[in-house]
């Protein structure tokens, strides 16, 4: 699939949101419980993410879900989206001055994460806010409203209302084995 096609770009919105909003996420590296995440400087999360749009105008409602692993920070990191069987669907990497998205054996480079998400979705996604949400900090940015009322249970959601239809993101973080 080519992401030059507008329909494919909308699909990538779900993939990328999943990647960037694990959108998104539990503490696999430190094996802390989701309730113990607040205030920690955890650099890895894993879980499941679901992205849904209501659609508006010519856009049809869409839904996507995948497993994810998110490592790093808002300035330098990596997001991997996986099938239930563990096959990697897509991988995004970013660092200051660069971002790249790999899918289906093809890698596309961008000057920044904002450029990458804007190319895929029409506007930048709030990566820095996502990392804050994972830490339990309810920052509202660019029209995104997080719901962290179930953060202690490893559940995060965010909503963005816009003229082209609402977007909903739900993340269920992996819980460590006890």
Secondary-structure map:
Layout: H1 6-20, E1 44-53, E2 62-72, E3 77-82, E4 88-95, E5 98-103, E6 106-110, H2 113-121, H3 127-134, E7 144-147, E8 155-160, E9 167-173
Antiparallel strand pairs: 1-2, 1-9, 2-3, 3-4, 4-5, 5-6, 7-8, 8-9
Helix pairs in contact: 1-2
**How many domains, in number, for the residues?**
1
Query: Which sheet architecture does the biggest sheet show?
Result: 9 strands, antiparallel
Note the beta-strand portion: 35-45%
Provide the low-confidence segments as ranges: 19-40
Number of helical segments? 3
CATH first level: which class? Mainly Beta
Describe the global form.
globular
Mind explaining what this structure looks like?
This protein has three helices and nine strands, in the order H-E-E-E-E-E-E-H-H-E-E-E. It has helices spanning 6-20, 113-121, 127-134, and strands at residues 44-53, 62-72, 77-82, 88-95, 98-103, 106-110, 144-147, 155-160, 167-173. It has a nine-stranded antiparallel beta sheet. Helix 1 crosses helix 2. The N and C termini lie far apart (41 Å).
Summarize the structure.
With 178 residues, the protein is α+β, with helices and mostly antiparallel strands.
Features of the shown structure:
alpha+beta; nine-stranded antiparallel β-sheet; globular; 9 strands
């Amino acid at each position: 699939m080519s992401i030059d096609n507008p329909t494919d770009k909308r699909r990538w919105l779900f993939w990328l949101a999943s990647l960037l909003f694990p959108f998104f996420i539990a503490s696999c590296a430190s094996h802390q419980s989701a309730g113990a995440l607040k205030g920690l400087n955890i650099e890895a999360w894993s879980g499941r993410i679901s992205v849904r749009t209501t659609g508006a105008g010519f856009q049809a409602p869409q839904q996507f879900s995948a497993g994810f692993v998110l490592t790093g920070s808002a300035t330098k990191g990596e997001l991997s989206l996986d099938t239930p069987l563990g096959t990697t669907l897509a991988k995004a990497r970013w660092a200051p001055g660069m971002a790249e998205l790999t899918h289906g054996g093809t890698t596309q480079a961008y000057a920044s994460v904002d450029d990458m998400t804007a190319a895929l979705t029409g506007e930048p996604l709030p990566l820095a806010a996502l990392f804050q949400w994972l830490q339990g900090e309810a920052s509202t940015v660019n029209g995104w409203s997080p719901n962290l009322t179930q953060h202690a249970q490893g559940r995060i959601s965010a909503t963005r209302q816009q003229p082209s239809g609402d977007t909903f993101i739900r993340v269920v973080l992996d819980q460590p084995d006890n």
